[in-house]
Amino acid sequence: MTELERIKQPIAEELTRYVQLFDSVLTHEEDFMRRVLDYVRGRKGKMMRPILVLLLAKELGTIAEPTLHAAVSLELLHTSSLIHDDVVDESEERRGKASVRKVYDNKVAVLLGDYMLAKTLSQSAMTGHIGIVDAVARLGATLAEGEILQLSHVEQESFSETTYFKIIHRKTGALFEACGELAALSMHADADFLQRARTLGSLIGASFQIRDDIFDYYDDEAIGKPRGNDLLEGKLTLPLIYALKTDADPEALACAQRVKAMESTPEDRAFLIDYAKSRGGIAHAEAVMDDYRRQALELLADFSNQEVREALQTYVDFVIGRNV
Q: Against a cut of 0.90, is the pTM above it?
């Protein structure tokens, strides 16, 4: 049994119900819409966010329809944000396959993202919980703020870990934090569990993004994006920011400024990747994730459902140690 299979085991039945609901939402009677939605449905990925919602909810008891609608609304919002992000970043690939904007065009991608946002609101309303509707709306605003902050940061000359962590919280940390919040709200959890679930999600989300950023320093077709893609888009991530802060090599700083100005060459990007590795940038990012792992496992220590607790512990390790 793989790690992912062990993670899913306690919620196998609920995950099947989730997939059925998600697929039913993304159907349409019009042929073109149906083809576009089929393309999106066929790229679900590992479903890490709905899995987290369902596992946390399972700790609290039997999962009912509101939790499933909450999980679907969250994944719809995430998917719509990725479709829009690919337009903003002019990305041609997503999860190793052609992006929606590449297969169709930017107009279709923007409108499809809007359509899925409307479906997001509908699914959150079907939970019958105004707190969930509010949480989903706040998350949508936070995700947009994260993208805008990242775009504005590209235009700035400074390199700051503080800004980096602010961006990844709003881009990914907030998304996983919302997994915890929606799980707790849909199961009518007390304030203590709500806070712990949100904190756990935030730690997992930050780790997820740092691992994703580390991937950019290596060649691997399975990841679904070429090495140095973040640098090509003018983004400096934790390994390089740390290396620049601790070493401040003039040549590296000059290359980094060209990256920020969207004027870097392939040679600049290759140099910065090697520079970040040789100056301990990857090791530093790994150490940050290890600390987040420790905090996350502490939060799970007193979960009463052993099967769920062990699945969540494996989930944390999977996020930090994943290869794709």
A: yes
